[in-house]
Amino acid sequence: MNRTTLSLIAGAGALAAVTGFAALTAPDASGGDTAKAAAQLPVERTSLLCPQPSTSDLAETAYTSFTPVSKGTGSSGTAQLKSAAGKSADGAKSGTDKKKADKPVLTPKEPGKPVTGATSGADAPALVGTAEGRFAPGWTVQETTEVAAGTGRGLLGANCTAPDTEFWFPGASTSDDRTDYAHLTNPDDSAAVVDIELYGKDGALKSTVGEGITVQPHSSEAILLSTLTDEPQTNLTVHVSVRSGRVAAAVQALDDKLGGDWLQAATDPAAGLVLPGIPKDATSVRLVAFAPGDSDADLKVRLASPSGSITPAGNETLHVKAGMTAAVDLGDVTRGEAGSLVLTPTDESVPIVAALRVVRGKGDKQETAFIPATAAIGTRATVADNRSKGSTLALTAPGRTAEVKVTASAGSGGGTAVTKTYTIKGGTTQNVDAPVPAGLKGTYALTVEPVSGGSVYASRTLAVTIEGVPAFTVQTLPDDRGTVAVPRAEQDLSVLQK
Known about the structure:
Blueprint: H1 8-19, E1 38-42, E2 45-50, E3 60-66, E4 77-83, H2 95-102, E5 115-120, E6 127-133, E7 140-147, E8 154-159, E9 166-172, E10 178-186, E11 192-200, E12 203-204, E13 213-215, E14 219-224, E15 236-244, E16 248-255, E17 259-263, E18 273-278, E19 284-290, E20 297-305, E21 308-310, E22 317-320, E23 325-331, E24 339-345, E25 353-360, E26 367-372, E27 381-386, E28 391-397, E29 402-408, E30 414-416, E31 418-424, E32 428-432, E33 438-441, E34 444-453, E35 457-466, E36 469-476, E37 483-487
Antiparallel strand pairs: 1-37, 2-6, 3-5, 3-7, 4-6, 7-8, 9-15, 10-14, 10-16, 11-12, 11-13, 11-15, 16-17, 18-24, 19-23, 19-25, 20-21, 20-22, 20-24, 25-26, 27-34, 28-32, 28-35, 29-31, 29-34, 30-33, 35-36
């Protein structure tokens, strides 16, 4: 995702806004930088946006909010998740809309304990949330929707995400059996202007409809992808870029026969990618990749299994032409074992984006989920809405062996936090027996913290049975952005007095 480059002074000001601490040091006379090493301090404000969960009258949506306990946060703070609807283009609210928008869906009471909320039906809006003080570091919100019947029936799960200015979604579709929407949510007081570009197997699809889409302040837009082009595409890469303002973006992928789920943004384009946590009972896995630059990409395809790295038979490499979407069906690649896909360049490094479409079940009892390529866990990763049954945590160490600490929080209705440490051998994926809070009531959160060794990638699969269908959703676990680096510095202002 794109990050706007700030000047040094503006950057220090921005850091001060989120951490409450920043100082600037002028270079000394010799031209050397006298700034001390940066300190990792807890963030003091975080925003998260949740897309409109469903247009189905049968939809039942649960929201779970969790903030890990972090050192150095103080004792004050608040967090709320409210409707994004209710404001007109000039920012005004009125009557019933104002009451609905102002009533929080959930309000966390303390870090370390999840809190839940729920909505139902087709009128549930997109949500905008803000956490401050002790609730901000690592704040995580999960949106989980059950749809009993109809197009996209099944379990749809999404991590509510921070607003940004660029997003990549390999794995979308405009084929006849798919109904895919790009959901754009604007949390700010001014309108955002957004472009949506579509790339198929032969390159960019011709369309002017996706240019200059206006998303009004404090509102959300759902754009049906098939209305942006006359060219049906089975495998599509969606690029969302923001001309002005910022938005949160996600793609809701609904299949007539295979159910549906949220396709969340893949990590930034990179030469090597990890797609962690393919369910061991997956019956069909499709890899979709896109090279956004001017050069083709040639990739080695490896499966990190519990016993080590193996090459999928017949799919040892993948060639991705520049500006075109490539797709390959890997079948039941995990063959009953935990697995993660690892993509590395065969020769010259070319940045790519990628995601997996995963299917479980057979016949008319099939369900779909997506696994986008994700970043490694940095300091800590968090995932909410884990349950006593049906939650699977997958940990992958594609390089060196790694040791990680996993903590199960207290339950939303009661229970005591539990921590376990695991060793993940290099080149493997392990579905670990994640801890469950003692005396669990309700749902709980998991935090994963690297202790030593190589990089670790993670995902959580949540599975339930809906009308006999093995419904499931997969959420990746990138860093939860609980801290920010702030320069420790001093500045001699005496020169300003001369």
